[in-house]
Amino acid sequence: MYKGGYSGKVLRVNLTEQNSTVEDLPEETAKDFIGGAGFGIKYLFDEVKGGTDALGPDNKLIFASGPFSGTTIPCASRMAVTAKSPLTGAVGMALSGGYFPVELKFAGYDALIIEGKAEAPTYVWIKDEEVKFRSAEKLWGMKTTDTQQIIKNELHDQNIRIACIGPAGENQIKIACIINEWRAVGRKGLGAVMGSKNLKAIAIRGTGEVAVADKDKLKAARGEMTKAMKESPVLYPNFSKLGTSMVVDHTCAIGIFPTKNFTATGEYNPVDKIGVEVQVTRNVGSEACYGCPVSCSQLKLAKTGPYAGVLTEGPEFETMYSYGGVTGVEDIDAIIAADRMADELGFDTMSSGVTIAFAMELYEKGILTKEDTGGLELNFGNHEAMNTVLRQMAFREGIGDLLADGSRAAAERIGKGSEKYAMHVKGLELPAYDVRGAKAHGLNYATSFTGADHCRGYAFQEIFGIPVPHEVDRFAVEGKGKLTMWNQDIRTATTDAPTMCAFLLDMAVVGIAAQNTASLMEAVTDLTYTPDDVLQVGERINNLAHAFNVREGLTRADDTLPERLLTEPLKGGASKGHFISREELDQMLDEYYAERGWDVETGVPTREKLEELGLGYVTDQLK
Amino acid sequence: MYKGGYSGKVLRVNLTEQNSTVEDLPEETAKDFIGGAGFGIKYLFDEVKGGTDALGPDNKLIFASGPFSGTTIPCASRMAVTAKSPLTGAVGMALSGGYFPVELKFAGYDALIIEGKAEAPTYVWIKDEEVKFRSAEKLWGMKTTDTQQIIKNELHDQNIRIACIGPAGENQIKIACIINEWRAVGRKGLGAVMGSKNLKAIAIRGTGEVAVADKDKLKAARGEMTKAMKESPVLYPNFSKLGTSMVVDHTCAIGIFPTKNFTATGEYNPVDKIGVEVQVTRNVGSEACYGCPVSCSQLKLAKTGPYAGVLTEGPEFETMYSYGGVTGVEDIDAIIAADRMADELGFDTMSSGVTIAFAMELYEKGILTKEDTGGLELNFGNHEAMNTVLRQMAFREGIGDLLADGSRAAAERIGKGSEKYAMHVKGLELPAYDVRGAKAHGLNYATSFTGADHCRGYAFQEIFGIPVPHEVDRFAVEGKGKLTMWNQDIRTATTDAPTMCAFLLDMAVVGIAAQNTASLMEAVTDLTYTPDDVLQVGERINNLAHAFNVREGLTRADDTLPERLLTEPLKGGASKGHFISREELDQMLDEYYAERGWDVETGVPTREKLEELGLGYVTDQLK
After folding, report:
1. CA of B331, closest CA in chain A: separation in Å?
2. Do B378 and B475 lie in a common domain?
């Protein structure tokens, strides 16, 4: 049935029953959803009912890699992890790279579905077809690097690959992540879902191979892709050496690097403190995901003060923002140390930093006081305080407990009108782009099915000026609905579903992305697609994911942006004076819904659209 | 020539020339010195001339495992590392377990001799017969766990075993250690020797096997040994579960657990704060060295305060003393965190803790002030201050720089009569036994060729009441010279040279140690020994090591104890009122030298004794 790419097997692990079953992957699911994010959304919608407690036993955690992962196609060892998010109440989905994703494939599975809740701390040990439940009582409380090493020692195999949570996930803080190797399934609190299931780790060792349907075709299709990679002016010349760090300088230059909880974007420009020239002084090599010739992940080593000697993989651009720009911290070594701590304790660098920036603004405004902070002077730029509070969040200590579930929950607890300073959409903290200077990107934040998420429909046209599918004015509103839909669908279809690295899309193959995915699919599997079919897979996934949110009760009112972005023009820099007015947002939303074929008033997908996408069965669940 | 146990090959790596050679191990060296510590002392004496700068290129670093390592004999994956010590100026030798020692054997070498000095940070990569020099520029400044992981990633092999230094070794602090896996070549500053050579790490992967001369004989001899292990009332029933932690309670009970820089031993008894009952609350499993069924190494996880989530392998008893008793610190989690930090930054837990305890006493006496400490309140028991200063020592920051080279150097720098509070012998800080209540143990501290070292001639008769070779009164002086010689020789011959675990000797095979070693040697190799021959190997090594020290200018005056132990009786506890008077020390030394066949006035080995041991060539070098 499956000639390549897929094993056609889904492993279902039930923690309550402490058993596992292997079931077939329906061919239709493969065809319609490709893999990764597609499988995640499909199983999530079908199996996790509306109103399910995200931290209860009925939530499910779906690990899925794509058909290219484990083949000779570079940059494909990635996975999507999907569950209902405890942070947003919407779809929780995040992707990670490294080695774990491909190991899942080598073990023989296209997806792994975790169900139920173990009675006591447990880890799951998957060796090809063998699945064991092992006690994690003694691992509970352990940091992520140690957890992985101790499990490898315990199982007497240093080549096992492990996804695990740290204390933050155990303590079910809603911004906890999952760590595999040094990579993170970072956002939407999926680590808390693992914690709620008493699942400390998943250890995998696979000894199989991933079949390929047509090796000659694959050679040709891969050749097209690697040619595009070689021709990219940034991928190898720049990105291999610097990773995402260079984006600090670029976003500062165009005035959209958010600083001091978005109060000072453009006006306060920290490029000389934490820009790429400073960052490279800490570079000590790089790491690559399985099968990746780019090796973008920069290792940095802190040099000064109490942080000296701390190594981290990163901080990526988003963390330079969340522990740097948005908190006003200018100490590169403090940022490096915070990044490592986040990986070790297992929480999202982005949401945690943005939540602290929020608390910093409240502290500066007098809404939070020294009494609340336990004596900490939580001003913008205080890196010791930032590092202290980050640690406290993971353990729910002191003010950390107040902030541990992200900025929306913190604002609810604090009250006093603080919500208007909380920079989130649907509960997910904003990424590192002040979208007052990049309006399609803003519309994506408002409409992405995971909340404010730069990983869903990244507007590289606005941010990097890449004229695909066409040139755009980043401050314009007209046409941004259509563009955002395209950005979301192309990303989902060509990176998140086949689990290809998103950086490839942005930097090398964007012009040929749909064709490239179609060619690779035809070579690796026995499924055929036109480029339009590929794009439609993206549309299908976005529709089904959005339908999940609608079923959870989300409405057009949730597709919005923080008040500050809608009311306060940028005060300085290259985007000075710009903001997204409520009218502009409404105009973009109208266009977006119309393009999507959704009801413009409510944002609910129409029956026609769903049926067109083969999702007719969904309609009845959207009352 | 060699039928088993030995490959007969010594790998010599020259960092200056960036080349390596393999040479034969002379059969006579194997016969006379067995391995491990024996080879270390032999090559050190013969190749490192008197007066060599310990931190200069002419010092050599000799890694040697024993003939049993890599065979089916349990508890034999250990190695001795030997060099001239920068801390003491005498023989620097320390042993470590783990996996690195056996990997050296599997790679085909009985010993590895590191010579010269690399121009720039380097690591050596040994894969069987292949030896490569690789840049460690980017590893410089990195902690030890990260260093090992990054090297494994870089060489694409997770099964490589690595010995490395941390920032402390790089900064050549004289109490820096070498770390392999989580084990330490802990004492005498051998990490600084690596640092002085610009050698960040040695990575080894061996795919060979260790031959055995007579498998039937081995089965029989090993059977004797494992029978003794099974019959031990402590080894499996107790030591497997608790490791060395139980010794805190025992030494507290007999009044010799040193507290507050030896000012309060017996009087202040912290057993309810840091004794075994508290320690086990942090236990989360154990780790074993290669081929060890005992698995004594207890993993502990800190639970509270800023230390929560820190895992460590340990703290061993000695560290419970150095970061606990002797500093007056009562916070188990602070001790756990300090232990991990020492492993990560790469310094000796013992010397560092005892040096801080010394500084604490000076601070309490007003000899050091807040000005000296940079504002820290360095009182006994201040665990935050202890952890801060420990970190500062590794980086030579603030008061850490003053203390970074151990207590003798610190006392010299501080002056003001502080030397009398510095608890060291020959510059090596005292281990965890207040020898005012264990006088043979005290004589061993005074005479051990490495300085105050519990690992050389451990007086288990006094400390645990084990009546081998006979019962003793721990407060008595008579007969302690002879006993100490036996303790030193049996330990050297049956554990340090064949590189067997010392705990086996103390806890299981002490009564049959020499016979057991003889039987195992005859089975594994083609060399034959009587038990007396075995003991004579110990004597030979001790003589040659002592001769090294004599050549370096050490005299009888250096075989002494800190003034406090010679003048202040214990103020409380089960050893109250006892001390070792100068007269008693002299009496024991006279007896010891006489038993050793050394000149009683000078402590120099006589020509007769050296010739008897086949070391006649040494005499001419001892003018």
Report:
1. 18
2. no
CA separation, residue A78 to residues A99, A102, A184 (Å): 8, 7, 11
pTM equals 0.97
| Residue A229: inside a domain | no
A215 inside domain: no
Q: Are B419 and B459 members of one domain?
A: no
Classify residue B598 by its DSSP letter. B
Whether residues B541 and B594 share a domain: the answer is yes
CB B341 within 8 A of CB B383: no
> A451 and A344, same structural domain?
no
- Chain B nearest-CA distance from A285, in A, is 7
B311/A159 touch (CB, cutoff 8 Å), yes or no:
no
Residues of A with Cβ-Cβ distance to B309 under 8 angstroms: 141-143, 166-167, 344-345, 394-395
H/E element, B92: strand B91-96
d(C-alpha A348, C-alpha B453), whole Å = 47
Regarding an ipTM greater than 0.90, the answer is: yes
| pLDDT of amino acid A506 | 78
Whether B303 and B169 share a structural domain: no
B135 contacts in chain A (CB < 8 Å): none
Measured in whole angstroms, how far is the alpha carbon of residue A558 from the centre of its chain?
Answer: 20
Q: Say what the pLDDT of residue B502 is.
A: 92
For residue A100, CA distances in Å to A63, A147, A195, A294, A315 come to 10, 15, 19, 18, 21
The total number of structural domains in chain B stands at 3
How far apart, in whole angstroms, are the C-alpha atoms of residue B63 and residue B56? Answer: 18
Per the domain annotation, does A569 fall within a domain?
no
Distance in angstroms (rounded) separating the CA atoms of residues B458 and B252: 18
Q: What is the CATH number of the domain that holds B103?
A: 3.60.9.10
Residue A171 confidence (pLDDT): 98
* pLDDT surpasses 90 at B184: yes
**Do the Cβ atoms of B139 and A391 come within 8 Å?**
no
Q: Do B299 and A138 touch (CB under 8 A)?
A: yes
Q: Inform me whether the C-beta atom of residue B533 falls under 8 Å from chain A C-beta atoms.
A: no
Residue B469 lies in a domain: yes
Give A-chain residues touching B308 at CB under 8 angstroms: 141, 167, 395
- On chain B, the residues whose CB falls within 8 A of the CB of A389 are none
> pLDDT tens, B513-568?
999 999 999 999 999 999 999 999 999 999 999 999 999 999 999 999 999 999 99
Q: Is the pLDDT of residue A510 over 90?
A: no
